[in-house]
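pipeline stage [seq->struct] | target=Facilitated trehalose transporter Tret1 | organism=Chironomus riparius | residues=437
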Amino acid sequence: MILNYISGWTSAAESKMKDLTQSPLSSIPSTEEFSWISSLTPLGALVGPYIAGPLTSRIGRKWTLLASSVFFIASFIILIFTNTVAFVFVARILQGLGVGFVMTAQTMYVGEIASDECRGALGSFMQLGIVIGILYVYCVGPYVSFQSYQCYCLIIPIAFVATFFFMPDSPHYYIQKGQEENAVKSLKFLRGKSTEGVQQELDEIRATVEESMKNKATFRDVFANAANKKAFIISAGLLTFQQLSGINVVLFYCQSIFETAGSSLKPAIATIIVGAVMVFSSGLTPVIVDRLGRKVILLFSAAGMTLSLALLGLFFLLDHNKSPIAESIKWLPIVSLIAFVFVYCVGFGPLPWAVLGEMFAPNIKPVASSMATSVCWIFGFIVTKWFSSLQDVIGSYGAFWLFGVFCAVAFVFTLTLVMETKGLSLQEIQDRLNGRK
């Protein structure tokens, strides 16, 4: 849940900054400044993985995750006292750095502590935590002052530090550092078993880590063999299409989209409904992912997003042309966005991160995860920064149709290239990538 408020923060904050009676700023930010407020977080998240990746090997996955809270806490303290757009920019960059830390270390941590039977379900819980947080800020943001909004957001990273501090690090990390006693303690805690009960899994982890640590990985090694290359294409490709679906535009500008569409519901209420649907749909994934498999769910998600965005674009086209039909279907933006976030949160929200956490061998995982995460946030920055400009050129309908085209391409990519990993151990995944049965 450490990422929760970041994705949805802009939705309520933008409305407050546009109203000088609520804004702490001396003037209303320009359209260009608002685009930077939205896009600086992905830009910070682009840099974060290159710091977090090496840290996961040096200080561990756990302490890298705890370190991310420093950025979040600092950012909200700045926002509580800010009175200029420049400090908002600084805060958003810090949030982005924190996001980069979390997305790099969390996928590794979850992929390594989970058993083979529940790794997909546990990996998809990340999305559930994110959308619970999004619903949290959607519910709180419209109804409190700007400063109080930041205080409510500040609670989350403080609570995270207070609880996660007592968790063990990954047994893979302990084995890498030669701390076998700590690895045994970690596995006993995670599995709820005795020393004898975790011995077989410990031996498997030791063999996997020792095999992968024979050669220290560099950025070049990500493309040094066919297995790593294929794993990177799958992981980076899924994360790229996750961003090109336009999800950050929906989350960052949710209230603005409903205001522009002239929805029959109050924008704040419609936004809360969208958040609630995201929580419900994200709760389904842990239940079904290890039954149906990653690939089937990703295909369903891509197809559903394509259709939803096509309908959303159709409404904005009718509205742009002042068609009387648009007046009679004011409900369509709500239905389309609800359908979009439902299928996104079931598939392309959680599963690209779950796949990233299980695709790479331990020695190359920090490097490869940093690179794949950075690719994700490059496209996240591009989409959020230039969405307003894209709207000016091709209209809202054209922008949403373009996102729909990307989702259709994501369907083809998943169908042809993505490998099913349901029920496979991390070593079995490596064997498949290397062409071994």
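stage status: PASS
auto-comment: Residues 365-417 form the longest helix (53 residues). The two ends are 38 Å apart (CA to CA).
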